[in-house]
Design goal:
Elements: E1 7-14, E2 22-29, E3 34-38, H1 45-53, E4 60-64, E5 71-74, H2 86-90, H3 100-109, H4 122-136, E6 140-144, H5 152-164, E7 168-172, H6 176-182, E8 185-190, E9 193-197, H7 204-240, H8 245-260, E10 281-292, E11 295-306, E12 310-314, H9 321-328, E13 336-341, E14 347-350, H10 363-368, E15 374-375, E16 378-384, E17 387-390, H11 391-397, H12 414-426, E18 432-436, H13 444-456, E19 460-464, H14 468-474, E20 477-483, E21 486-491, H15 494-500, H16 505-518, H17 530-533, H18 544-571, H19 576-579, H20 581-611
Parallel strand pairs: 3-7, 3-8, 5-6, 6-7, 12-19, 12-20, 14-18, 18-19
Antiparallel strand pairs: 1-2, 1-4, 8-9, 10-11, 10-13, 15-16, 16-17, 20-21
Length: 612
């Protein structure tokens, strides 16, 4: 029996001036769908998601959501006006008595519900919007860049939540590892056309290149046909002295077809140029320590960075990654220990706050007003790696059109702001790049290009990022800041670090599960030992899917235990039943559901462990 769709768009057309964003778009989302929505920055991904959410009205077409189906949308810039705390906002649409769901989600996303809205950062506001959506658990979730401003631990928690949910979702993200792990279908927006592929993000880039190659071939064949018809129109008329009006009209139609083809946007002309060669030793830190009040940021770190190294810094939000970067480049002095910088360093900094951009000034003024880029006596040009270039021409190299040149920076999307900051950095020679969260908001193609550029860069790179795939592709070593002043240097990228690290959030969850399962059961069953639960590289008794499930189950068990503990605490109020029997009933049903799920997960774990 065919499944009734959760959402259907029919004949959707939308134009914001110039070429249409969408034209006669049809789209269906079914129960259980897990869809990646991909496309370049500015291609219309967020706009399409807002149409799906019913927040943007199309010029033509209809949006249909069956009665009883709820569609939830995670906004990138949520409106929190009227709410005192982030928790108030996140729980605002929940039935009375279910605010505990926000507390459960907040723990995984690492935000404090009691945080006042007035003092909340942009990242905290976005995490509150994500928590609101997850706690509400609609039939269809629309997630617009949910991993932005999440650290890797929170991303992994969210990945587990979405993998285990039965809710359908459509997902916009630049995080390739996240997309590969979660999606089963792909929607690709390209030049106003939306294509669907019934396969997840894995293999998308190969599919994209095939589509583009076919489009280029079709355009080439059309050009040849137009040239042949145009030649006939000139020579044939003279030979027969009579115009074949049918063929002339066909020629006009071919020209119209060519004019209607929207050419594929090129790639940004990005390039880092190394300045003078630095000394072989770029940075050497010995025994550096940093403490703010009673909070230890770093304790006794030794690290040496040599010319050409690509060093990634990873760890939870707020652990001190940016502080460590500032110490390593001499911007902030350590409390103890020494930092020695090498010779002939030309440092370029990409800061995560985009503080080098004036949001009120235009793109033009942000370039020409920079003293390091200014060309004496000519306000129209900027100095690009020692050569004067017109400001608009340089902006076009980074995929900005002439109309955007005079627009304020605050009108740009997050990805466009990142591209503009890269344009400023790439105008200057450097031999030491400090990249603090450069991957936020960049589309997949720009990330690929940035990765290739860093691979060809002759200088040294210090990188902070939560994009596991990007770290794997770029880093030669990884510094893990794990809290309480601990910092350890590992060779390789994120995957290498994950394989070498002694303790992670997942293994701590496994330890908790082991302690619980190790206790004798009522039936006297023997619990497995810790060594039996630890993930192994090779488990010949299980399939790949079963091995993965065995590795994931301890984390799922720990999560269910945390939710049951929250519910138990809520139900422990002595007058809850008499004051609000409806809340008592809902909480009781919820705890019974989780206890059943916990029992199922424990049984599944034991069966898989025994088979192994």
């Amino acid at each position: 029996m065919a499944r009734a769709p959760l959402l259907q768009l029919s004949g959707i057309s939308l134009t914001f001036g110039g070429n249409p964003v969408f034209d006669n778009l049809d789209l269906v989302v079914h129960p259980g769908d897990r869809v990646a929505l991909v496309g370049r920055n500015g291609s219309g991904k967020s706009t399409l998601m807002k149409v799906m959410a019913g927040l943007v009205e199309p010029d033509q077409g209809i949006r249909v959501v069956p009665p009883g189906i709820t569609v939830g949308y995670m906004e990138q810039d949520p409106d929190l006006s009227g709410f005192e705390t982030l928790g108030d906002f996140a729980a605002s649409a929940l039935p009375e008595g279910e605010s505990y769901k926000v507390d459960v989600v907040a723990e995984g996303l690492k935000f404090r519900p009691e945080t006042p809205v007035a003092t909340a950062s942009g990242g905290e506001r976005r995490r509150a919007a994500l928590a609101k959506l997850l706690a509400e658990a609609p039939e269809l979730m629309l997630l617009d860049e949910p991993t932005n401003h999440l650290d890797i631990q929170a991303i992994e928690w969210l990945e587990t939540e979405l993998r285990d949910t039965r809710t359908a979702f459509v997902l916009i993200s630049h995080d390739r590892a996240f997309l590969r792990a979660l999606t089963r279908a792909t929607l690709w927006i390209d030049r106003g056309e939306v294509r669907r592929r019934e396969s997840g993000f894995e293999g998308f880039e190969e599919w994209r290149e095939t589509v583009w190659a076919e489009a280029d071939e079709a355009r080439h064949n059309l050009e040849r046909k137009i040239k042949a018809e145009a030649k006939w129109a000139v020579e044939g008329i003279s030979a027969r002295r009579k115009r074949n009006m049918g063929r002339v009209r066909a020629l006009y139609a071919l020209r119209d077809e060519r004019a209607s083809m929207i050419r594929r946007q090129g790639t940004a002309a990005m390039e880092f140029e190394s300045g003078t060669t630095s000394g072989k030793r770029v940075i050497e830190a010995k025994g550096i320590t940093k403490v703010f009040g009673d909070r230890v940021i770093l304790r006794g770190l030794d690290i040496r960075v040599l010319r050409g190294d690509r060093v990634a810094f990873v760890g939870p939000n707020g652990v001190g990654k940016t502080t460590l970067l500032k110490m390593l480049v001499g911007e902030l002095a350590p409390d103890t220990g020494t930092v020695t910088l090498g010779t002939n360093l030309d440092i370029a900094v990409f800061d995560q706050t985009r503080a080098q951009l004036d949001p009120e000034a235009s793109l033009w003024d942000n370039l020409t007003g920079d003293p390091t880029m200014r060309v004496s006596g000519n306000s129209d040009q900027v100095m690009v790696r020692g050569v004067p270039k017109h400001a608009v021409a340089y902006l076009k190299d980074f995929l900005f059109d002439e109309r955007q040149a005079r627009a304020p920076v605050k009108s740009l999307s997050g990805g466009e702001k990142a591209r503009l900051l890269l344009a400023k950095l790439m105008a200057k020679p450097s031999n030491l790049l400090i990249l603090d969260e450069p991957t936020n908001d960049l589309d997949v193609e720009t990330l690929d290009l940035l990765q290739d550029i860093l691979g060809d860069y002759d200088g040294t790179v210090l990188l902070v990022s939560h994009d596991r795939d990007f770290i794997d592709r770029v880093a030669t070593s990884t510094v893990a800041l794990e809290g309480q002043g601990r910092a350890t240097v590992y060779p390789g990228g994120w995957s290498d670090y994950a394989a070498q690290r002694p303790t992670t959030d997942v293994t701590r969850a496994e330890d908790r599960a082991i302690e619980r399962l190790a206790a004798p059961s009522d039936k006297g069953a023997k619990a497995p030992a810790k060594a039996e639960l630890a993930p192994a590289k090779s488990r010949p008794g299980l399939t790949f899917t079963e091995r993965k499930r065995l590795d994931d189950l301890p984390g799922t068990i720990a999560r269910l235990e945390a939710e049951i503990a929250k519910l138990t605490e809520f139900l422990s109020a002595p007058d809850l039943f008499t004051k609000d029997p409806a809340k008592f009933k809902k909480a009781t049903e919820a705890i019974a559901e989780r206890q059943s799920a916990l029992a199922t997960a424990e049984e599944e774990w034991l069966l898989l462990a025994e088979r192994e």
